[in-house]
Amino acid sequence: xxxxxxxxxxxxxxxxxxxxxxxxxxxxxxxxxxxxxxxxxxxxxxxxxxxxxxxxxxxxxxxxxxxxxxxxxxxxxxxxxxxxxxxxxxxxxxxxxxxxxxxxxxxxxxxxxxxxxxxxxxxxxxxxxxxxxxxxxxxxxxxxxxxxxxxxxxxxxxxxxxxxxxxxxxxxxxxxxxxxxxxxxxxxxxxxxxxxxxxxxxxxxxxxxxxxxxxxxxxxxxxxxxxxxxxxxxxxxxxxxxxxxxxxxxxxxxxxxxxxxxxxxxxxxxxxxxxxxxxxxxxxxxxxxxxxxxxxxxxxxxxxxxxxxxxxxxxxxxxxxxxxxxxxxxxxxxxxxxxxxxxxxxxxxxxxxxxxxxxxxxxxxxxxxxxxxxxxxxxxxxxxxxxxxxxxxxxxxxxxxxxxxxxxxxxxxxxxxxxxxxxxxxxxxxxxxxxxxx
Length: 438
What we know:
It contains 15 helices and eleven strands. It is an alpha+beta fold. The protein has a six-stranded mixed β-barrel with strand order 3-4-9-6-8-7. β3 (97-109) and β4 form a beta hairpin. The model has no long low-confidence stretch (mean pLDDT 84).
């Protein structure tokens, strides 16, 4: 019987092609607009490391101006740490894994005389960074703990940097000149584009992965510039780079890996005790207030998905609703035009349930066709976003299998919902009145 209803639906399409096309177009426009914004919001807010996100924590401590909070939010804490605090906490090794990190940049001088020097972004971190965030390696691996403590000039390259400097070949053990100094390549990471880039949302949650990774301890030796956000509530005490590093300026992130709730509680106790000890040295003038944020909590606090994007999504749903209201009107017109046919079916013995099923299947078919067309419009919308905002949104403007399923389900459910009232009207047609009119 279901196959029979589908045949009737497509015969109805052929009898009223204009009305059917208008309904498909209305649903397609609504699905296209809503799915474009849903897809972007879904990818922006997706869990970037789902199997581990509840074990990774970003650290916040209140080391700010005693007379003014970090911002207007009463619960606000600075979003980064000072170089001193991040270094101290990393060296304490109270977590399973821990790493202070910051962003910088330097000039790379290729050995090939025909290649020009170029500027590359650098992620300064400790060796735990790679295991903590499960960074994949194409060649070699991360440096060891001795390289961190001895400030060895070693480096891990991104895949694209390895291709630019060494033609993509295995470069482990080779020499590379960065910021005028010679570094040994110990690893080359494979393609790794975390989206959102949760480990450094301060400097852009949708930016590309850095081109180089080197020990955090080298920041002081090389006096590398600060490429990330830098905020100060008082001036450094002294002149020069060393005074800047040891100032109360915040420019460093700190992540720890804590495998369970007990480890989290113990680390928070350690953090509170650390701040108390710093208070005795005349630092941390504000009341004790420290916080551990797991990955999803941190992205929510930093509003990775901006309110404008959420508003656009709700506006697109309202547009879909308008399209469905138009579809209801078109279905009423279509089913009214079939009154004599429906009356005859009821007169010869068809039940209202049979008529209801037949027309619900018809509206479902319209919804599925509109959903498929809407997917095409979604792809057009996502391409438009790419052309407006450039390469950095490539990973945000793409349909995956789950979004395709969501689009078809929304189209199917919404079309059936739109067809309920017209179908109910069709089921209540009086057979006698239709037969008299004939």
